[in-house]
Amino acid sequence: MSLHILKAGPMTTLQDLGRRGYLRYGVNQSGAMDPVAASVCWQLLGQTPGDTPLIEIPLGGLQVAVDAPTSLAVVSTGFSVSRSGAALGASALITLLPGETLDIRPGTAGQFAYLGVHANWDIAPVLGAYATHLRSAVGPAPALNAGDTLGMTPHSPLDERLNLPPLDHGPSVLRAVDGPQLDYFPVESVDRFYSQPWTVGAASDRMASALIGEPLTHEKGFDILSDGIAFGAVQVPGSGQPFVLMADRGTTGGYPKIATVISADLPRIAQARPGTVLHFERVSVEQANATRLRQKDGMLAWLRTPAELDTERLMTVNLISGVVDGHTPPA
To answer: Which residue range(s) make up the domain with 189?
Structure first.
């Protein structure tokens, strides 16, 4: 039995939460650009996040079919999702039948959507993960294209949830902690980084999100002895235009890092389309850790909500911004 790829935009790939333990060997972590959306997708299917591959769908969209009844979950921040022409919510859990198609196309918001399957995939991990890094050709499959088939053994169908709303990743403010080379920048550059607006540039991709604004200046030059790069690290090259390192970043880099976007806000930058205006807010490591824990609690609350979730209900269990204080979990 198979999942059939009928249409696929460029850079459609299999992903999980990333390849761990190999950075020291120069092997990229890769993985889902939006780990929160990916984790929600797995959990809608009753799966442990990261244990099975998902299809990460960029703006080119995806159309699939199956040859046996199969439950599939789609999670997005604003894509257009339909089954054989009938519109569904921006996120949905459906059972697709042979002869039907599932279409996932760019909509009002977001850069990436995720498709998961309630099945055992006939796909073997590579170096312990299903993450795909196209530049180095590391992963279980190359980019997916029309005509590809992915073998699987479907499980029993799940109850459908057809009209789940888009995930709300909150305002376009990226909270960040100080970077390891903060002393490479004069105080006025650090203040400007946190006070001025930044526009996401067209050169952004899975490797980095380019930011455009008034250039920053360096106090000690813009070259350092290359060191490790975290997901969300903000490097500032000689141009003074920062870029945020994303899932397909290199393992090391030689530009000074002024900040690191906190893990809870990585979905905001991952889903920001070119032209989006962003701001940075300086926070402590303790604040970053507390926000991450609240985000996890909010995600669990969202997953316990009734099958048909409306927008008003979603706002009471905002799982992305970390603002869940005062929420009373459902019984």
So the answer is: 173-283
